[in-house]
Amino acid sequence: MSLKIRLSRGGAKKRAFYRIVVADARMPRDGRFVEKIGTFDPLKAKDDAGRLVLDQEKAKAWLAKGAQPTDRVLRLLDGLGLAKREARSNPLKAKPKKKAQERAAAAAAAAAKAAEAPAA
């Protein structure tokens, strides 16, 4: 049984509130879980103590047992110093796609043509 430490959504529409739970990876997001280890309220200020409430001992124990945190939970655990999150960098994703490159090349060509026309 592979376990995940993940967020389970609660709260009203557009007023999200999450429980941090340890659950079987095959269970649905808000479905059955093994244990609740904390809460996360993204609507609170980042420096508010109630934004992230986590039983750190239970989190350490589950990590030691092999539970895999999801990306968002890993980011939260990294903020508390419980787990190390690798920095992500994908420089190719920031590059413009083919059509945007073609438009930029056409605009540069038009600007060069306009720049040399008054000189002549």
The total count of helices amounts to 3
Strand coverage percent: 25-35%
> How much helical structure, as a percent, in the residues?
25-40%
Strand count: 5
Low-pLDDT runs of 5+ residues are none
Q: What would you report as the Rg, rounded to the nearest angstrom?
A: 24 Å
Structural class: alpha+beta
CA(first)-CA(last) distance: 76 Å
Query: What does the average pLDDT come to?
Result: 91
Q: Spell the H/E element sequence.
A: EEEEHEHH
Major sheet description? 5 strands, mixed
Q: What general outline do the C-alpha atoms trace?
A: elongated
Order of strands side by side in the largest beta sheet? 4-3-2-1-5
Topology overview:
Layout lengths: L2 E10 L2 E10 L10 E6 L11 E3 L1 H9 L3 E2 L1 H10 L17 H22 L1
3D architecture notes:
This protein is an alpha+beta fold and 120 residues long. It contains three helices and five strands. The chain has helices at 56-64, 71-80, 98-119, and strands spanning 3-12, 15-24, 35-40, 52-54, 68-69. The chain has a five-stranded mixed beta sheet. A hairpin with a 2-residue loop joins strand 1 (3-12) and strand 2. The model has no long low-confidence stretch (mean pLDDT 91).
